[in-house]
Amino acid sequence: xxxxxxxxxxxxERARELAPVWTLLALIVFxxxxxxxxxxxxxxxxxxxxxxLLAIMGxxxxxxxxxxxxxxxxxxxxxxxxxxxxxxxxxxxxxPWPIVVALLVASFLGWIxxxxxxxxxxxxxxxxxxxxxxxxxxxxxxxxGRILFDLPPLxxxxxxxRIFGVKWLVIVAALTLLVGHLVxxxxxxxxxxxxxxxxxxxxxxxxxxxxRVVAWVMVIAAFTAGLxxxxxxxxxxxxxxTAFDGMLIDAIGAVVLGGTSLFGGVGGIPQTVVGLLILGxxxxxxxxxxxxxxxxxxxxxxxxxxxxxxxxxxxxxxES
Length: 320
Known about the structure:
Blueprint (H helix, E strand, L loop, with lengths): L1 H33 L6 H26 L7 H17 L6 H24 L3 H20 L9 H8 L1 E2 L2 E2 H19 L1 H11 L1 H6 L4 H27 L11 H11 L10 H20 L4 H27 L1
Antiparallel strand pairs: 1-2
Helix pairs in contact: 1-12, 2-7, 2-10, 2-11, 2-12, 3-4, 3-5, 3-10, 4-5, 4-10, 6-10, 7-8, 8-10, 11-12, 11-13
């Protein structure tokens, strides 16, 4: 009897893990049936281009959520990094230093948020919320509300350029996801990330410095957000003080849609990839079928909310 219950539990857990994959397949089939242009290489390329920036940002968010933390500043970090890169370029700082400085600024602010959470005990929700205001304020201060058009050449290349017909933006996103996966899967730090999120007390007893892990995942999230920003301004062709502020919900939502737990210790980069594709296919498909333009955001929001409820309900069952 116990063996039967154990087998049923394993099947239920497997079903939970595969639920996002089945959701993705269902969306692909649905939009493929109702849209003649959905199953084309050009359209699949459009989907990848649409989620590329989210993929870069989502890599860092995956690290944060795996430690049972949250980062509400990533979209503002991306905006600030783009502004700093453009501002430094306009100030005639030699290349590629504008991009280096932008990434360092984002990483430093991420370290401040991480240190506040890890060593001062400030909840990550509050520390990153405050940091989002700081990053937004710095963006406004540097630009004075203006649009900056002096961009680093490397940003233009990575944001809008192509190699062998493939956009550099997609390649950067794929490489970022790959590096994130290798770190989480095959390094000691990656194991510490999972241990910290799953059971921080047990991790500490095993000799893991969980505070240091939390601080570093915040730095990683800020760095990937900054990378998204410096690449994103090349895609947009300019840097503005609000360029990427609206990406926060999409980036976190995509990671959660894929199955990474809000309670830490469960998930990873493959799940994030699935979540990104779900969001990309959903938005692309809604653009191709006859759905009221005002209902698209509503439908996307309902699906994201359902994913959150699903995530929390199953996380509670797993803990029990």
